[in-house]
Amino acid sequence: MSKKFDSKHNTLLHRKLRERNISLHKNLLEFVHLSVSGPVRDLNTANHQLLQSQVTLQEAATTLHTLHKSLTLLSSRLSDITSSAFLSNIKTHV
């Protein structure tokens, strides 16, 4: 031990108490570290998965928006084609 204790506090009992206190302190620190590090790791993992889900949802929303614009344009063009006089000039053989 690096600390010097006067003779009345340097008995075998005091040395054993100091050893046990040091061991208790070490065990408590380890317990707290393990109790906190696992949930922190779990929260970090959940946060990472949520961020990945958010990116996926944003990509899906962008794709759906593009699809909606394309379908609107297609619908407009199809309407133009079906309403024009061009189709009445086509003769079909039955």
TrEMBL record:
Name of this chain's protein: Biogenesis of lysosome-related organelles complex 1 subunit 3
Organism in which the protein naturally occurs: Timema podura
Domain of life where this protein originates: Eukaryota
Assigned protein family: Belongs to the BLOC1S3 family.
Pfam families in the record: BLOC1S3
